[in-house]
Amino acid sequence: MRALPIYWKTLNHQGASNLTEQQAVIRPVLKLLKKYKIIITADREFHSIFLSHWLKKSQKNQVYFVLRQKK
After folding, report:
1. DSSP assigned state of 37
2. Which of 30, 33, 39, 53 is deepest in the core (most CB within 10 A)?
């Protein structure tokens, strides 16, 4: 299986993104694919307990996700 990016956003700073910036990237994709079950896989940049809570709360059972942790 190959992943193909369908949406991205260029940030005007270096370093990690915050929850608001992460939501700004994910929200349009969820809206675009709202009729489908979605699996989000993310690298350590997106590892956040707040992001996982937001995904669970705002998207109910249609979104599954794997957020890679820092060791």
Report:
1. -
2. 30
